[in-house]
C-alpha cells in the first residue's frame, strides 16, 4: 500500500489550509478611549446606590497597617466610617 492510503485508513485526513495571501485582511478595530473603557467597567462592576448619581463599588485595599490605622483614627475623630475618609481623600486627590 501507498503511505497516503495508510494515513486515510488509520488516521484523520490531512486538510489543506488556505494560504495567508488568500485570507481576507482583518479590519482594524477602533481602540476605545479610557473614558469609554471606564464607563463600560463601571457599568459591569458597580451596583446602583440609594444616592442619586452615585454607584456602589466594592474594592479590596491592601494597605500598610500603619496607614489603615491612621485612616481609621481619622474616621473615628470625624465621626464617620472609614469608607467616607477614603472617598474624601480620593475626591481631594482627583480634583
How far is it from the N-terminal to the C-terminal residue, by CA? 80 Å
How big is the Rg?
29 Å
Order of helices and strands: HHEEHH
Q: Which band does the percent of strand residues land in? A: under 5%
Q: What is the mean pLDDT?
A: 86
The number of strands is: 2
- Major β-sheet strand ordering: 1-2
- Assign the structural class, choosing from mainly alpha, mainly beta, alpha/beta, alpha+beta, or little secondary structure: mainly alpha
Categorize the overall geometry: elongated
Low-confidence stretches: none
Helix content: 40-55%
Largest sheet entry? 2 strands, antiparallel
Number of helical regions: 4
Quick summary:
By secondary structure, the protein is mostly helical. 49% of the residues lie in helices and 4% in strands.
Task: Report on the architecture of this protein.
The chain is mainly alpha-helical and 95 residues long. It has a domain at 57-95. 49% of the residues lie in helices and 4% in strands. It has helices at 3-10, 34-45, 65-78, 82-94, and strands at residues 47-48, 55-56. The protein has a two-stranded antiparallel sheet with strand order 1-2. Helix 3 (65-78) packs across helix 4. The radius of gyration is 29 Å and the shape is elongated. The mean pLDDT is 86.
Amino acid at each position: 500500500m501507498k503511505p497516503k492510503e495508510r494515513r486515510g485508513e488509520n488516521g484523520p485526513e490531512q486538510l489543506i489550509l488556505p494560504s495567508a495571501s488568500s485570507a481576507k485582511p482583518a479590519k482594524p478595530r477602533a481602540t476605545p478611549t479610557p473614558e469609554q473603557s471606564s464607563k463600560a467597567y463601571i457599568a459591569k462592576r458597580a451596583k446602583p446606590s440609594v444616592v442619586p448619581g452615585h454607584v456602589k463599588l466594592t474594592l479590596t485595599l491592601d494597605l500598610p497597617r500603619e496607614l489603615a490605622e491612621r485612616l481609621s483614627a481619622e474616621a473615628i475623630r470625624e465621626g464617620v466610617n472609614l469608607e467616607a475618609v477614603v472617598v474624601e481623600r480620593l475626591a481631594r486627590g482627583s480634583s
